[in-house]
C-alpha cells in the first residue's frame, strides 16, 4: 500500500442521516493519521469505510489506484486479510477461543487450511511472547484484564503482517499504563516496520506523534493538517 485516497465519500443512513458528507483526503505509506472530532462526527463510520467494513453511499476509496468500494465480497475480503489490521475499542475477541486461538484466527482465515496449524501456532506464540502475553496463551478472553485484552487484539491485528492498521478508539477502554504502552507500540511499528496507522480517537496524546490530523464535525471534514 502506497496511498489510500478518500474521494468525496458520503455515507447516508436510511432516514436521511448523513454520517459522512463529501469527505476527501489521502493517507500515504508511513503515515500515522489521526481522525478526531466530537462524538457522532463520523469517525467510526469513516474508519469502517476505509477498512472495507462498510461502503459509502457516494464517493470512493482508492488504494494505489484500485477502487476498493466497488470490489466484490471475495476480493474485498482478500485485501482486508492481506493488507489491513483492525483494533477496536472493545477488542471483539471471540470468547469461545483461547488467547492463542484468537491470534491464529486471521492466519487460518487467510489460508483456509488446517495443515499449517503448527506454523500458525508458532507465529501466534512468537507475537504473544513479544507482547509479554505467552503466559496467558491458553486463557480465555473473560479471564484477562483490559490491558491484556488490548495486547491480544494487537497481536491478532499484526499476525498477517498488515500494511495498514485501522484503530477505532484503541485506548478508549484501557488504563493509563496500557495506553502508554500502546503509544510506544504504534511508534515502534511505524518506525521499524513501516506500518501505516489510521486512528480514530478522543485521546489528544495521539496528536503528539500524528503525521496527519483529520478533523470531522457533523460528518464533514472540518480541518486537515500535516505535521512533521
Ligand atoms: P463517531 O465515531 O465520531 O462517534 P459515528 O461514525 O459512530 O461517529 O456516527 C456518525 C453519525 O452516524 C451519528 O450521527 C450516528 O448517530 C449515525 N449513525 C451511525 N451508525 C448508524 C446506523 N447504523 N444507523 C443510523 N445512523 C447511524
Ligand atoms: Mg466512534
Using the alpha-carbon principal axes, give the shape. globular
Reported for the largest beta sheet, the result is: 6 strands, mixed
Ligand catalogue: adenosine-5'-diphosphate, magnesium ion
Whole-number tally of structural domains:
1
Alpha plus pi helix count = 6
Question: Any descriptors?
Answer:
4-stranded antiparallel β-sheet, 6-stranded mixed β-sheet, 228 residues, 10 strands, binds adenosine-5'-diphosphate, binds magnesium ion, Rossmann fold
Summarize the structure.
The chain is α/β, with parallel strands linked by helices.
Can you tell me about this structure?
With 228 residues, this protein is α/β, with parallel strands linked by helices. It has one domain (3-226): Rossmann fold, CATH 3.40.50.300. It is built from six helices and ten strands. The chain has helices spanning 43-50, 73-83, 99-111, 117-130, 146-158, 176-193; strands at 3-13, 17-28, 32-36, 58-63, 66-67, 84-88, 164-168, 196-200, 212-217, 220-226. It is globular. The model has no long low-confidence stretch (mean pLDDT 94). The structure holds adenosine-5'-diphosphate and magnesium ion.
Amino acid at each position: 500500500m502506497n496511498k489510500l485516497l478518500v474521494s468525496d465519500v458520503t455515507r447516508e443512513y436510511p432516514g436521511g442521516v448523513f454520517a459522512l458528507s463529501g469527505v476527501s483526503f489521502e493517507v500515504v505509506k508511513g503515515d500515522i493519521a489521526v481522525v478526531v472530532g466530537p462524538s457522532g462526527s463520523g469517525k467510526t463510520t469513516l474508519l469502517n469505510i476505509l477498512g472495507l467494513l462498510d461502503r459509502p453511499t457516494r464517493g470512493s476509496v482508492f488504494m494505489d489506484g484500485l477502487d476498493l468500494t466497488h470490489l466484490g465480497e471475495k476480493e474485498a475480503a482478500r485485501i482486508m486479510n492481506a493488507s489491513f489490521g483492525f483494533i477496536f475499542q472493545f477488542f471483539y475477541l471471540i470468547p469461545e477461543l483461547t488467547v492463542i486461538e484468537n491470534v491464529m484466527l486471521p492466519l487460518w482465515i487467510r489460508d483456509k487450511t488446517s495443515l499449517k496449524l503448527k506454523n500458525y501456532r508458532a507465529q501466534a506464540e512468537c507475537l504473544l511472547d513479544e507482547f509479554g502475553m505467552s503466559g496467558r496463551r491458553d486463557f480465555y478472553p473473560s479471564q484477562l484484564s483490559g490491558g491484556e485484552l488490548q495486547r491480544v487484539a494487537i497481536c491478532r491485528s499484526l499476525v498477517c503482517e498488515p500494511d495498514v492498521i485501522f484503530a477505532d478508539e484503541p485506548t478508549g477502554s484501557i488504563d493509563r499504563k496500557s495506553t502508554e504502552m500502546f503509544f510506544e507500540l504504534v511508534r515502534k511499528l511505524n518506525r521499524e516496520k513501516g506500518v501505516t496507522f489510521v486512528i480514530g480517537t478522543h485521546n489528544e496524546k495521539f496528536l503528539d506523534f500524528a503525521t496527519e490530523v483529520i478533523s470531522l464535525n457533523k460528518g464533514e471534514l472540518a480541518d486537515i493538517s500535516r505535521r512533521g
